[in-house]
Specification:
7-stranded antiparallel β-sheet; 298 residues; Jelly Rolls; globular; mainly beta; 25 strands; 2 helices
Length: 298
């Protein structure tokens, strides 16, 4: 059976902004250009930014309800705490898949030794919508250490894919998702080619972290001419996505490939709350301000 490669539909440069206590992010969406990309609600690349000792910033206590947050640390170290008494540490390569569900208070701050010594902070945060039937489930976490994340490798060893969710090169993710999702982090060496099968119902985008590459031999879009911190949206006509790094390119191409099946439900969002109706948003604010989401005890 022949394979049809999806074509690049749109390219969106991430916009720089300051979040939390004052840390830099490159935000692909939401923006005036793209509000969301069902089932995804937000994509931030945190940094990369070099912090001097004592200067690293984080996101102090803040609420969430109605969706999931996925934090993927590439460099640096964060500590997290929540109002349910959960706490932990995210080191380079670790993933935290937090289902906020009915709501909690969450804090993400630089880990003590990282704050004291300084260093490069670099990470990704992705927000994933929850379907109406799951929006008010009890909050919980899936936390995977870097060494436990499955890695798929091509036969010629020129493509390596860390599988946070989904499957690539027969490597299957440990993380379980509530809606069908894949989240893949690939490094493609010069001369390498990666063809990732994609089911037609998935919405798919890529995000460039480093280097240059081509998306599909049939596509006229050449990422060599693109800047870093760009989101690439694909059309839904095809059953695979092809990424190529020609042998005459000098450096590896590092890219995230993320896809999910649309939920196709109404979205009403206000800050840290994402529900289906305005009334549910008002209820979320009342629950937050009356303490029903708890407080973080330290």
């Amino acid at each position: 059976m022949s394979t049809t490669h999806r074509k690049v539909k749109r390219m969106i440069p991430a916009k720089m902004s300051i979040e939390g206590e004052g840390f830099l992010v490159h935000r692909a969406f939401p923006s005036q250009t793209l509000l969301d990309f069902d089932p995804f609600l937000l994509f931030d690349e945190m940094g990369p930014i070099d912090h001097q000792p004592g200067n690293a910033k984080g996101a102090p206590d803040h609420p969430h309800r109605g969706f999931e947050t996925v934090t993927y640390m590439l460099s640096g170290c964060f500590e997290h705490n929540d109002s349910f008494g959960h706490n932990g540490k995210l080191e380079p390569g670790d993933v935290q898949w937090m289902t906020a569900g009915s709501g909690l208070i969450h804090s993400e701050m630089p880990e003590k030794s990282f704050l004291e010594k300084g260093g490069t902070l670099h990470g990704i945060q992705l927000w994933i919508n929850l379907p109406k039937e799951h929006k008010m489930i009890s909050p919980h976490y899936q936390e995977i250490k870097s060494v436990d994340i499955p890695i798929g490798v091509s036969e010629d060893n020129k493509v390596q894919v860390r599988v946070l969710a989904g499957e690539a090169f027969n490597a299957k993710a440990i993380i379980q998702t509530r809606t069908p999702i894949f989240y893949l982090h690939a490094v493609i060496q010069p001369g390498g080619r990666w063809e990732q099968p994609i089911l037609k119902e998935f919405n798919v985008f890529a995000y460039v972290l480093k280097g240059e590459g081509l998306f599909s031999r049939k596509s006229e879009t050449n990422l060599k001419s693109c800047e870093l911190h760009q989101m690439i949206m694909f059309d839904n006509d095809g059953d695979s996505i092809e990424l190529i790094v020609p042998s005459d390119f000098n450096d590896p191409f590092e890219v995230l490939l993320i896809g999910g099946v649309p939920i196709n439900e109404p979205i009403v969002r206000y800050g840290p709350f994402v529900m289906n109706t305005e009334e549910e948003i008002r209820t979320a604010f009342i629950d937050y301000h009356t303490g029903k989401m708890g407080t973080i005890k330290r």
